[in-house]
Specification:
Largest sheet: 4 strands, mixed
Distance between the termini: 29 Å
Bound molecules: coenzyme a persulfide
Mean pLDDT: 98
Helix content: 40-55%
Number of strands: 10
Strand order of the largest sheet: 1-4-5-8
Radius of gyration: 21 Å
Structural class: alpha+beta
Oligomer: single chain
Amino acid sequence: MINFNLSEEQELLKKTAKDFAKNELLEGAVNRDENKIWPKEQISKMANLGFLGMMVNPKWDGGGMDTISYSIAMEEIAAVDASAAVVMSVNNSLVCYLIEHFGSDFQKEKYLKKLASGSNIGAFSLSEPQSGSDASNMITTAIKDGNHYILNGTKNWVTNGINSDLVLVFAITEKGIGHRGISCFIVEKGLSGFECGKAENKLGIRASDTCELYFDNVKISEENRIGEEGEGFKIALSTLDGGRIGIASQALGIASASLYHSIQYSKEREQFGKPIANNQSIQFKLADMAMELEAARLLTWKAAWMKDQHKNFSAIASMAKVYASEVAMRASTQCVQIHGGYGYIAETGVERLMRDAKITQIYEGTSEIQRVVIARSLL
Ligand code: COS
């Protein structure tokens, strides 16, 4: 039986996230974006609300919620500030998820509790300058030396790279055997030889930080390896499956904000003696935005539901991400169009939606890679 009603808890969570976004994120969002200011104070308030480890078992200080709840909260946060939303997404669906599902009890006790409660922030580092979509083509190495590994290499596009307390790093522990030679490590900030590059100057999500990471003979304890040697690539890909639901939800937030602002403005703005909402050309844009948003949300919630049912959700998560991100791009572009010249300046706040939407088609697997995953599942 299909039931589209949200539970009482989910309704309450939605309201809490919406109120928080309106009261704490809205003011200053344009300024933080313009000046690339990481939302430190706001993230700490999100931690207090339990938004940074929503799906983690309460045993490890998480919220014990389902993935649909996570998607709902992500959408509300992203509708106001997509930069704060990506900090939340990486911490929840990449870092906490990975440690909870593949880490040891020692790692959960030492690291997951702080990440799930939001007192620490995590980052996830797979890509390298020469290996993006072809993720297993990495050259960073972690060579065993007694009960340690020595990490050397350069990573890039690391969200939360600068403002995190630890990073999950994927590196080659055995050369020449492709993805089967990749392992995953928890690397704490402050280790000798570990440096962060400058914050990238990005088109969108400018209040979140993205940087390169440099490892020069960084000594990592064996107890910080997650899973067995050689399991790292599969751990990365299965974690990214869930991460893609988080990014799809971020895209839903951008699309719903685009629709909201388009409706408000088209009812207020008068041209030729009447509100522009009276024009069928505007009405059709609104109708398309609403229709596509609804379809994207259903797809994303289905992916979240399948994940919670422990079904194979890889392809549907890719469908949700590729569709929701494309909807966000179309909706935000139409939103700017409806606002005309006012849509093109920063103060109005809607050009930020269009700039923020673009990355959802790129990170955690490009739209092209999502289509590869979907096609492979069909064939
Ligand atoms: N979960 C777990 N394991 C998976 C998996 C998944 N979703 N998808 C594939 N695997 C396994 C495969 O079964 C295979 O294992 P075996 O060799 O034991 O059979 C292994 O992983 C390698 O799979 P495959 O040969 O399909 O890997 P490819 O190199 O062809 O890559 C894509 C597959 C392109 C889908 C993958 O590299 C990818 O997702 N790339 C994008 C990376 C990305 O999202 N980067 C963003 C980084 S975070 S900003």
